[in-house]
Amino acid sequence: MRQSHFAWSPVARLALFLAALSVPVALQAQSEANHLYDKFQFMVAGSDVVISPTIQINGTNQAGTEVEFGKTLGLARSGFEPMFAIRWKPGRRHELEAGYLFLNRTGEKVLQDSVVVADTVFGAGLNLNTKFSADYAFLSYKFAIMAKKNTQLGLNLALGYIAFKTDINALASASGNDTLITASYGVSKSFPGPVGTLGVFGRFRFSEKWYLETEGAYLQASASNIKLTEFVIGAAGRYYLSRKFGFEAGYGITSVDLHVSNTGSRGIIDPGTIQGKIGYNFQNFRLGVILALQ
């Protein structure tokens, strides 16, 4: 009996060879993640926030003293704070991000010179206890003008809210007739700090695991009884352990100058709550953990 043999043509052999090569390539493409285009990202971070705030709160009939919180009131410049952020990408070019940074400081110091805060005068030699908080919430919209596989470049519009609150309390004492008399008094102010910037951003993918993010923004605006100037610059490196989990190390500088004038009760910020100016500068060193969902 004759044995039949099937002869492979050169074209069939080449097709089979290319198909064999495409299997691992296809599997690799299927498992490869591009975190520039994750549907959702969640980040929890710990931040070392270095602040350099100055504040001047004017009284009803007098200008307040411009107070440097660290030098005058003894507030620590550096402190560890938690931060949370979430990103949602509804389309390839569009992204919304919301976040919240906690910031709280306490300090105690003997005044070297008299200061005026609102309508309260604190004399030299008084022992002051100060609490200061400025939690920061923000919402940003990013539009990628360039949206390639390894590069995103575009515009960023960010709006934010800083919940300023300051409590300054003094303990005064006097002695007479073998009697020590003590009295405490102080001032407490809380007010919103609306902020916002318009800027640019860039994100770069060097490999499946390594990414770099950069941003820069600035805004100067006036509305009703407030004038705002804000400047932001920052960068962050990201390393992903898998499709879902990664780490971020970042650094940013934010500078805010907010002026509130007395133009009546219809202002954006009620001048009965605060009049004056706030110079609020902080640096943010952060380490975070990322959860990515494609």
Number of strands: 15
- Distance, first to last CA: 61 Å
- CATH architecture assignment: Beta Barrel
Number of helices: 2
CATH topology: Lipocalin
**Number of separate domains:** 1
CATH first level: Mainly Beta
- Class from secondary-structure proportions: mainly beta
Structural features:
15 strands; 294 residues; 9% helix; elongated; mainly beta
Task: Write up what this structure looks like.
The protein has a single domain, classed as OMPT-like (Lipocalin), CATH 2.40.128. It has 2 helices and 15 strands. It has helices at 10-31, 69-73; strands spanning 40-51, 54-57, 67-68, 78-88, 94-101, 104-110, 115-117, 120-122, 127-147, 151-176, 179-205, 210-223, 226-240, 245-260, 276-293. The strands form 2 sheets. It has a 10-stranded antiparallel barrel. A two-stranded antiparallel sheet has the order 7-8. It starts with 9 loop residues before the first helix and ends with a strand. The model is unreliable at 23-30 and 178-182 (pLDDT under 50).
Layout of strands and helices, then pairs:
Elements: H1 10-31, E1 40-51, E2 54-57, E3 67-68, H2 69-73, E4 78-88, E5 94-101, E6 104-110, E7 115-117, E8 120-122, E9 127-147, E10 151-176, E11 179-205, E12 210-223, E13 226-240, E14 245-260, E15 276-293
Short characterization:
With 294 residues, this protein is mainly beta. The chain is 9% helix and 64% strand.
